[in-house]
Hints:
- The chain is an alpha+beta fold.
- The chain has 2 domains: 13-50; 54-132, Alpha-Beta Plaits (2-Layer Sandwich).
- The chain is built from 4 helices and 4 strands; from the N terminus they run ααβαββαβ.
- The chain has helices at 13-26, 31-50, 70-80, 108-119; strands spanning 54-64, 85-92, 97-107, 124-132.
- A 4-stranded antiparallel beta sheet has the order 2-3-1-4.
- A hairpin with a 4-residue loop joins strand 2 (85-92) and strand 3.
- The longest helix is centred in the N-terminal third of the chain and has 20 residues, at 31-50.
- It starts with 12 loop residues before the first helix and ends with a strand.
- The structure holds nickel (II) ion.
- The site of nickel (II) ion has 4 residues, from strand 2.
- Residues 65, 90, 92, 98 line the site of nickel (II) ion.
Amino acid sequence: MEKLVRFGVAVPENLLVEFDKWIKNKGIPNRSEAIRQLIREFVAEEHWDRETGTVYGAITITYDHHVHDAMGGLTTLQHDFGNIINCSTHVHIDHDHCLEVIVVSGNAKNIKRLVDSLSSMRCVETVSHRITTIL
Length: 135
Ligand code: NI
């Protein structure tokens, strides 16, 4: 485990009241744990924005499988990004629509490229992603 470092933080009292409410509602054990989680989210977001560093997460897409070559196109794309895709799960939502969750890990730049490539496909109707870090 990484060495833990203590640091003091001064914040306006009303801000701390709101923070403590949020911690209680979330069921987070204490302020230290809450701050660690927020910093991790911040770092992951920074990596994502600057397209640098290793990130982990899931990309969720919905698409219409009737669109010409939808399945073939998505399979080819996922093979092209095979080095950052860990696995994927396919769910048939209804007669026309499919949902796929693609679990990814790797350089933020490459994962962003995959997200953009998915967004540009004609069959794809929605793309969302959730990225995190393990620091
Ligand atoms: Ni399906």
